[in-house]
């Protein structure tokens, strides 16, 4: 019977490989179970991607006051724009809870507010919901972070967070506009 001797450098490399394998597995476990890491939920429900506003759980794109200190923002992503957000900025007041309801009518998009932790995939037929409280007035940029076609790099928008004293609720702004056109 012959004994096989393992050279000390081979033992060192075997030990290093074992440590790396354990570290990789630990990283995967942490990434899937760690705090703040989750897949896109179906809390927002589903819609018909061809006509998302026909569903009960998705309104016409825009800002709606839910109660005294919270707003719902409905955003539709289509190649290569956010509606609202791209052609006109989304305006919300500071120090209020803002829930974004975002869906896509064509392909998978991304919805990311640069410099914040607001970031989700926008999947056709699903409504992604994110709630955030903007504590200071400033402009946030929206970018699509999922490749959605040849003009993906130009798919951007903005959110203007304004002081509450400067914010006119959307319903009031519409009423004020109709009074101006009536006179």
From TrEMBL:
The record, for SUPFAM superfamilies, names: Cupredoxins
The cross-references to CDD domains, in alphabetical order and at most eight, read: ba3_CcO_II_C
Q: Which Gene3D superfamilies match?
A: Cupredoxins - blue copper proteins (2.60.40.420)
The record ties this protein, via Pfam families, to: COX2
The main location is other
How would you classify this enzyme at the top EC level?
oxidoreductase
TM ranges are 12-33
Q: What EC number(s) are associated with this protein in UniProt?
A: 1.9.3.-
One CC-aspect GO term: membrane
Q: Which InterPro entries match?
A: Ba3_CcO_II_C, CcO_II-like_C, Copper_CuA, Cupredoxin, NosZ/Cyto_c_oxidase_sub2
Q: Which domain of life is it from?
A: Archaea
Cytochrome oxidase subunit II copper A binding domain ranges (all copies):
68-173
Name this polypeptide is given = Ba3-type terminal oxidase subunit II
**Source organism per UniProt:** Halobacterium salinarum (strain ATCC 33171 / DSM 3754 / JCM 8978 / NBRC 102687 / NCIMB 764 / 91-R6)
Query: Corresponding gene?
Result: cbaB
């Amino acid at each position: 019977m012959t004994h096989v001797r393992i050279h000390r450098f081979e033992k060192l490399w075997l030990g290093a490989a074992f440590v790396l394998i354990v570290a990789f597995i630990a990283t995967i476990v942490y990434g899937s179970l760690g705090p703040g890491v989750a897949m896109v939920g179906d809390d927002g429900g589903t819609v018909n991607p061809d006509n998302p506003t026909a569903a009960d759980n998705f309104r016409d794109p825009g800002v709606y006051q839910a109660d005294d200190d919270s707003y719902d923002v409905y955003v539709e992503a289509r190649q290569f724009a956010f509606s609202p957000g791209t052609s006109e900025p989304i305006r919300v007041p500071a120090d209020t809870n803002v829930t974004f309801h975002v869906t896509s009518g064509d392909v998978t998009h991304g919805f990311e507010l640069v410099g914040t932790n607001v970031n989700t995939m926008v999947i056709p037929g699903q409504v992604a919901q994110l709630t955030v409280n903007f504590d200071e007035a400033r402009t946030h940029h929206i970018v699509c972070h999922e490749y959605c076609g040849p003009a993906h790099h130009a798919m951007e928008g903005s959110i203007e967070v304004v002081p509450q004293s400067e914010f006119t609720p959307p319903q009031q702004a519409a009423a004020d506009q109709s009074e101006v056109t009536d006179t």
